[in-house]
Structure formats: C-alpha cells, structure tokens
Design brief:
Layout lengths: L24 H11 L12 H4 L46 E4 L8 H10 L3 E3 L8 E3 L5 H9 L3 E3 L2 H4 L1
Parallel strand pairs: 1-2, 1-3, 3-4
C-alpha cells in the first residue's frame, strides 16, 4: 500500500501537544496496515458487556468526548456544498450537465458559481466523477493539475460560466 502524508488542509491544530509527540513514519505505516486504506475501522469484540443494548437516554460508557464537549466539526466554507434548494431554474443551458466547481475567482465565489449552474439547469457536484462534464477552477492548483494529467475531464476557467 502506498502511504502519503499529503493532506488537502489542516483538520485540527493540537495546542495540547508539541512537535515531539507527532506521528513518525513507522506509526503511520502501522495505521495504514491496520486500516487497509479505509478512513475508519470497526473491531469486533466478543465481550458480552459491550454488546448489550442500552436503554433510551442511557449514555455509552465508551463514548469519548473532545475537550470542547460534543460540538460538531465544521467544514471550511470553500469545501461546503451550496444550498440551492430555493434556486429557480431560469434556462436549460447546462441541462444534463454535471459540473464540479473547484474554486471561484475575484468577482464570483464558488458558491455563486454553483448557484449559477443550478439556475441554468445544471447539476453541481463536490467531487468529479466519470460523468462530470467539466471542472471549473480559477487557479491551476495541484488537484487541477492532477485532473488535467488524467485527461478524462475538461478543465475550464470560471469566466466560462459567467459569460
């Protein structure tokens, strides 16, 4: 299995630990081996006390809470899906087209571009797939370069949507 330390962004800054407590390569290799490329892994435990069902309202004794309690994690706004439930379709310019907006540009944000796509009859997605018509990106970031190198999906500038 190929193991990479590359990440798309910072998930959480741990101010309670210093750099000496970071994961080393051998620990990363252990995790890669144990999780077999998945993000999460369930372990089967044959202990009858853990398999008993809890009554409604009873807390899980094994549940761990973070230092801030049970506050939900938030996704950065540039990665959030745009709520287009109340957008009215004006035309069918992008009918039957699935478009992936990676980034906006100076005059139009990612959310504004996604709203325009829905207004003109298109479908917006958060991850490209083989059925994606094109990727819209203002900057040639690493993800865009990888999509271009793969060659299966066209990459266009956001001006293509606006004009």
């Amino acid at each position: 299995a190929v193991v990479s330390t590359q990440s798309t962004g910072v998930v959480k800054i741990r101010i309670d630990k210093d750099w000496k407590h970071c994961m080393d390569i051998s620990a990363l290799a252990d995790i890669a081996k144990n999780f077999e490329g998945r993000y999460a892994k369930r372990k089967y435990d044959n202990d009858d006390t853990k398999s008993k069902k809890r009554k409604k309202g009873e807390e899980d004794p094994n549940k761990k809470t973070g230092p801030r309690g049970s506050k939900p994690c938030n996704v950065l706004s540039i990665y959030q899906d745009t709520d287009t439930t109340n957008v009215v379709v004006l035309e069918n310019l992008f009918l039957n087209m699935e478009l992936f907006v990676l980034s906006g540009f100076e005059s139009h944000s990612k959310q504004e571009l996604e709203t325009l796509i829905v207004q003109y009859g298109g479908t917006k997605v958060q991850n490209p797939s083989p059925s994606t018509h094109c990727v819209i990106a203002a900057k040639e970031a690493i993800k865009v370069q990888n999509i271009i190198k793969k060659g299966s999906i066209d990459v266009v500038h956001p001006v293509w949507i606006v004009e």
